[in-house]
């Protein structure tokens, strides 16, 4: 199998961090998505969503979406488990990962793409068009992040990691949420001290030294 990735792509780095945490190495092909490699053949046909990361299996089949790739790799290499080893743990890790992605990572990503000049003409991932950057989306990202932080802060008072006592794929998502907040220049309000403590617990983990 081969992973198509770009070393500066946050979603690609989620898979790289997962691989490092698992102690796995796989064949990687670097696609420079800033230069538009993903729109050229054969990559356009391999992933018509024009994004990295995507994984090519030995039978030629393609899996994209960072978490779906990680889930597939976890099935092949269950230890150390990052998606949970019981029905309850799996559901809770999935629940937290979805909350992080839908309520925080996604609005944060839209905020960045509507703010930074490097994303002009690329407001939606994997597109090149004239959709304009909008300050309203940036403001909404800040509002949604504030709501999210307020919701998770009490939960993190009694949980070392976001889905419970063990580090999981949801913490990997969390790390890239924090990295994106820095790019967006969203500072986590000091009142959310449990969120800041969680950030402190995961930020220096070896898997994130890529
Ligand atoms: N939900 C997807 C998002 C993938 C994505 O947005 N990838 C970005 C890099 S972080 C990309 O390839 N962008 C290419 C572009 O915008 O042209 C995932 O988790 O894999």
A few lines on this structure:
With 210 residues, this protein is of the alpha+beta class. The protein has helices at 10-22, 43-46, 66-76, 87-115, 135-156, 169-184, 193-202, and strands at residues 2-5, 27-30, 54-56, 62-64. The chain has 2 domains: 2-76, Glutaredoxin, CATH 3.40.30.10; 87-208, Glutathione S-transferase Yfyf (Class Pi), Chain A, domain 2.
| Beta-strand residue fraction | 5-15%
| Percent helix range | 40-55%
What's the N-to-C terminus distance?
21 Å
Please write the CATH class name of the largest domain: Mainly Alpha
Write the CATH fold name of the largest domain.
Glutathione S-transferase Yfyf (Class Pi), Chain A, domain 2
Question: Secondary-structure element sequence?
Answer: EHEHEEHHHHH
Oligomer: single chain
| Class inferred from helices and paired strands | alpha+beta
The biggest sheet amounts to: 4 strands, mixed
Overall form: globular
Helical region count?
A: 7
Which architecture name of the largest domain does CATH use?
Answer: Up-down Bundle
What is the count of distinct domains?
Answer: 2
Q: Looking across the biggest beta sheet, what order are the strands in?
A: 2-1-3-4
Contiguous runs where pLDDT drops below 50 for at least 5 residues: none
Count the beta strands: 4
Overall pLDDT score = 98
Bound molecules: glutathione
Rg calc: 17 Å
Note down, in words, how this protein is organized.
This protein has 210 residues and is an alpha+beta fold. It has 2 domains: 75 residues, Glutaredoxin; 122 residues, Up-down Bundle (Glutathione S-transferase Yfyf (Class Pi), Chain A, domain 2). It is 50% helix and 7% strand. The protein has 7 helices and 4 strands. Helix 4 packs antiparallel against helix 5. The longest helix has 29 residues. The mean pLDDT is 98. The structure holds glutathione (GSH). The site of glutathione has 15 residues, from helix 1.
